[in-house]
């Protein structure tokens, strides 16, 4: 039940942010725990292989001696992907290239609260 509420909140968030096409909360292996997406989101960006790459990249970036990696922004020709490291889960936002990247980064506190709900749900089920 709580996961449905989180999904609804993510869907509402997607509707409020112009250009945001998908929000995916996944584990370290890229397996989606919760995924909300529009019809136009590239299928490749929601696959476990793509999502798991962030966990690996975040681990490698943390080895640079600058402390734990918090986020990574990837820009592609038509889309951008913002990843947040909320270990043991990871949040990926897939948006159009014209979406406001700063606005997407500003969603972190709100998404962190939703991740806390998801973590609580997983532990109690």
Class by helix and strand content?
Answer: alpha+beta
At the fourth level of CATH, the homologous superfamily is Dynein light chain 2a, cytoplasmic
Distance between the termini: 10 Å
Rg estimate, integer Å: 14 Å
Q: Return the CATH architecture.
A: 2-Layer Sandwich
What percentage of residues falls in helices of 4 or more residues? 40-55%
General shape: globular
Strand order of the biggest β-sheet? 2-1-5-4-3
- Overall structural domain count: 1
Descriptive account of the structure:
Helix 1 packs antiparallel against helix 4. The protein is built from 4 helices and 5 strands, in the order αββαβββαα. A hairpin with a 4-residue loop joins strand 1 and strand 2 (32-37). The chain is of the alpha+beta class. The chain starts with a helix and ends with a helix. Strands 2-1-5-4-3 form a 5-stranded antiparallel β-sheet, with helices on both faces. The protein has helices at 2-16, 48-62, 101-105, 108-124; strands at 20-27, 32-37, 71-75, 79-86, 89-96. The mean pLDDT is 87. The chain has one domain (2-118): 2-Layer Sandwich (Beta-Lactamase).
């Amino acid at each position: 039940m709580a996961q449905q509420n989180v999904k609804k909140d993510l869907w509402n968030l997607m509707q409020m942010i112009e250009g945001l096409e998908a929000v995916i909360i996944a584990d370290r292996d890229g397996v989606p725990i919760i995924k909300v997406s529009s019809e136009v989101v590239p299928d490749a960006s929601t696959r476990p292989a793509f999502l798991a790459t962030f966990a690996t990249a975040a681990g490698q970036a943390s080895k640079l001696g600058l402390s734990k990696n918090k986020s990574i922004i990837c820009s592609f020709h038509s889309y951008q992907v913002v990843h947040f490291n909320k270990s043991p889960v990871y949040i990926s936002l897939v948006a159009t290239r014209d979406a406001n990247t700063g606005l997407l980064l500003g969603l972190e506190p709100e998404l962190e609260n939703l991740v806390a709900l998801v973590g609580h749900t997983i532990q109690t089920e």
